[in-house]
Amino acid sequence: MNAANGGNWQRTNDPKLKSWIESANAPGSDFPIQNLPFGIFSDSSNASRRVGVAIGDSIVDLDVLAREGLVSFDAQLFAQASLNAFIATGKEQWRAIRVRLSALLDANNPELRDNAAIRQKALIAQADARLHLPVDIPGYTDFYSSREHATNVGSMFRDPKNALMPNWLEIPIGYNGRASSVVVSGTPVRRPNGQIKLPDSERPIFGACRKLDIELEMGFIVGAGSALGDPISCERAEDHIFGLVLLNDWSARDIQQWEYVPLGPFNSKGFATTISPWIVTLDALEPFRCRQPEQSPQPLPYLQHAGEHAFDIQLEVDLRTQSESEAQTISRTNFRQMYWTMAQQLAHHTSGGCNVRVGDLMGSGTISGATPDSCGSLLESTWNGQRPLQLTSGQQRAFIEDGDELILRGWCQGDGYRVGFGACAGQVLPAREVV
């Protein structure tokens, strides 16, 4: 397919578009024809991992479409256990395949709709599929970019009048995390063991985390790498972003409190980070672009960019206890509130010469609003356990208990449709026995 076919990509966001896959047209569907997120899947009839696109309650098998000649891409790009090879083809090709899929799935196009033989092979029910980690992740970086979250934590553990450290309003604060422990939604998370310093003890103990927490975040996937020593400009940073996922950066708060001085989190964050399986492209999110919060003082020149660089993504956290069948929403917030933008994060990350690679994962940092019910962590919403959450079941939660399942959800609300991310879920297993 000629990359120029990606030139009319804006039409893929037309709110009037409908698909011949009826489930995609339901107002509450995360995956309408305007979305078309990419992921990796397998199913009972074909255990091979391959590239798919979510539409309604189905998955379009791109390997089948390529082998049948319905998309003019090398089928080998889609017969892969990760999206890295496809992502590496570049932005124009991402757009070209999305434009072609939008046309094939359009309610008025009979090309695939009326071809029963190919349709039967190319469409897989999501209920019958297994979703896998969508990318091989060479590196993972976690930022700390919500002013509300940083203020809450600074007030809790330092001086409320000086909650933000002097550098916070100047630098998108971040640290390099542990890429090897990033897992896909649905993977159980083992409560970590670690060193914990109890208030009345002279020395630490080693044992199971007692203050297990979540961090509600968005993550972006690097789509175009950079050379060592070559910074990415803030104005062009979004050209290096393939798309976004939901991200839960599980956190062991008691282990973190003891280990973070002087170099920051280590084992308290390295045991698991969960991401959602579908990567929603920046092109699909374009209609929901909005103005980022005002920044004062004005950032240094290398962190400045014109225009709007935030995205109106509504976010929720649900908690399901082991004894309850229904989950309860414990937080609602919005990605648009982040003080530092993704472009600024990537520009700062590479400003010293650090190179990035296709598939690198960048976490936004915990996303919190101004009220307790909009906090992105239990650390904040319970104020370090002092004000436990009251669940509708009558139970309380200061932090996460064994058997609890945490589910993150996010979506952009359009005119009669939503562009969603699916679920980012994980259930907590007991810690390994200390020997």
TrEMBL record:
Species assigned in the record: Paraburkholderia youngii
Positions annotated to bind substrate: 144, 158, 256, 260, 366
EC number: 3.7.1.2
Pfam families associated with the record: FAA_hydrolase, FAA_hydrolase_N
Protein name: fumarylacetoacetase
Annotated binding of Ca(2+), by residue: 142, 215, 217, 249
Keyword Kinase: no
Gene behind this protein: fahA
Fumarylacetoacetase N-terminal domain sequence ranges: 34-134
Annotated ranges, domain Fumarylacetoacetase-like C-terminal: 140-425
Active-site residue list: 149 (proton acceptor)
